């Protein structure tokens, strides 16, 4: 068994090595009418490109390797949005009757990202070699996670792959849309606060020292706020590198601890869920992703226990992920889904009741989709509300940081003018 496993690992490594050797070739050929055609193709060598062109009825004239750019020669990283767009494209083509291999050829030809293009070409070649789609996608577990592959496998087994792919495409689009909206809502306040901190540091390093020297020459007695700002400026001038590296080190340590420590990740997730407004958005988003993911997997024909196993990692929350894992254990021993949901204590009563109705009526997937739609709409409304609430809060913070610093610097001048 160990020998077989080692061989499988070696074989998989060899397959991935072959993918990395795919090269893009620019070609010029004449078609059957003698018309000059040109294009590009990813292959292991130029001979395979010529062979493919001849198979398509063209006479190759020149085939040369595309020159590699100085930067980004291997293409940018494949993002979840790219996978969502690909899912919609392949679902549309297969529903229209286009064969799978030809669908992959068409989609790969239209890809601008060289890395994703080579990936799709390799998947196509693997399928041509006799592998199923979910087996070919398994070579890229980062881009096509276990949930994605399980859904594809279920579609292949039930003979409704085009329908399942359409459902998967909708699922990916909805999930990425929620992520994008939350990131967009948080990006503006984060950038404004970052600029405010940067302006404050510049003032402490370059502006405050000028005022401090003026006050020192005048021999004036400084008010407490002014003295605090001057002391902060002197500290920044002497230890600015400690502050900068301390901020960077703190962020890096936070990210690493969240990735490597389960307890810290659980603690941080619980803290985030308890934050006002933001915590509510994260909670609703996790419920929406849970409901839609479970609904998609259940509708695809995946058994409930296996579906819950795949859903645990798709909620985007450690707390809700642990709750789903506990639900899986309860369902595996015969408990009803709605009962196990109630025991976790993290799902609202409405979600539990709708799940119970779905179980009793035999329309669990339909009710889960209803839950997902409701909470996705709630997330959209909450994000819009968050943007409205953050604007005055940002103004207050800017006023305290920058405005307070400016006022403290002018206090001695106001005091001197009052005594004259």
Automatic annotation (TrEMBL):
InterPro entries for this protein: GspF/PilC, T2SS_GspF/T4SS_PilC_CS, T2SS_GspF_dom, T2SS_GspF_sf
Which ranges does the record mark as transmembrane? 186-212, 238-257, 393-413
Identify this protein by name: Type II secretion system F family protein
The UniProt record lists the keyword Transmembrane:
yes
What keywords are annotated for this sequence in UniProt? Cell inner membrane, Cell membrane, Membrane, Transmembrane, Transmembrane helix, Transport
Domain Type II secretion system protein GspF spans what residues?
Answer: 86-209, 290-412
Q: How does it sit in the membrane?
A: Multi-pass membrane protein
| Classification lineage | Bacteria, Pseudomonadati, Pseudomonadota, Gammaproteobacteria, Lysobacterales
> What Pfam families does this protein map onto?
T2SSF (PF00482)
Where is this chain's protein located in or outside the cell? Answer: Cell inner membrane
Into which family does the record put it? Belongs to the GSP F family.
User: Where does this protein have coiled-coil stretches?
Assistant: none
Q: Is Acetylation a UniProt keyword of this protein?
A: no
Where is this protein chiefly located? membrane
């Amino acid at each position: 068994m160990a020998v077989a496993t080692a061989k499988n690992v070696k074989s998989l490594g060899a397959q991935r090595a072959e993918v990395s050797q795919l090269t893009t070739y620019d070609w010029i050929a004449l078609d059957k009418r003698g018309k000059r055609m040109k294009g590009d193709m990813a292959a292991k060598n130029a001979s395979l490109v010529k062979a493919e062109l001849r198979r398509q009825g063209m006479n190759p004239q020149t085939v040369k390797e595309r020159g590699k750019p100085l930067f980004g020669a291997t293409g940018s990283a494949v993002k979840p949005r790219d996978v969502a767009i690909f899912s919609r494209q392949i679902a549309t083509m297969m529903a229209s009757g286009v064969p799978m291999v030809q669908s992959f050829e068409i989609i790969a030809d239209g890809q601008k990202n060289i890395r994703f293009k080579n990936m799709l070409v390799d998947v196509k070649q693997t399928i041509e070699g006799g592998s199923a789609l979910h087996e070919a996608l398994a070579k890229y577990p980062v881009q096509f996670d276990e949930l994605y592959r399980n859904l594809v496998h279920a579609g292949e087994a039930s003979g409704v792959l085009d329908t399942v792919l359409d459902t998967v495409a909708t699922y990916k689009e909805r999930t990425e849309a929620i992520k994008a909206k939350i990131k967009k809502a948080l990006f503006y306040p984060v950038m404004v606060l970052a600029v405010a901190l940067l302006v404050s540091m510049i003032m402490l390093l370059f502006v405050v020292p000028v005022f401090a020297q003026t006050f020192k020459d005048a021999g004036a007695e400084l008010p407490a706020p002014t003295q605090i700002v001057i002391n902060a400026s002197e500290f920044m001038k002497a230890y600015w590198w400690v502050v900068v590296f301390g901020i960077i080190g703190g962020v890096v340590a936070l990210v690493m601890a969240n990735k490597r420590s389960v307890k810290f990740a659980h603690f941080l997730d619980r803290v985030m869920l308890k934050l006002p407004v933001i915590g509510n958005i994260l909670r609703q988003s996790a419920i929406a992703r849970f409901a839609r993911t479970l609904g998609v997997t259940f509708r695809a024909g995946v058994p409930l226990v296996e579906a819950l196993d795949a859903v645990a990692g798709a909620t985007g929350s450690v707390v809700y992920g642990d709750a789903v894992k506990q639900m899986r254990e309860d369902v595996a021993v015969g408990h009803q889904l709605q009962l196990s949901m109630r025991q976790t204590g993290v799902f609202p009563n409405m979600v539990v009741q709708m799940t119970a109705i779905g179980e009793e009526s035999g329309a669990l997937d339909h009710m889960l989709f209803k839950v997902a739609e409701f909470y996705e709409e709630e997330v959209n409304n909450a994000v819009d509300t968050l943007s409205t609430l953050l604007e005055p809060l940002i103004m207050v913070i800017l006023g305290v940081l920058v405005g307070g610093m400016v006022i403290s610097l002018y206090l001695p001048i106001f005091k001197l003018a009052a005594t004259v």
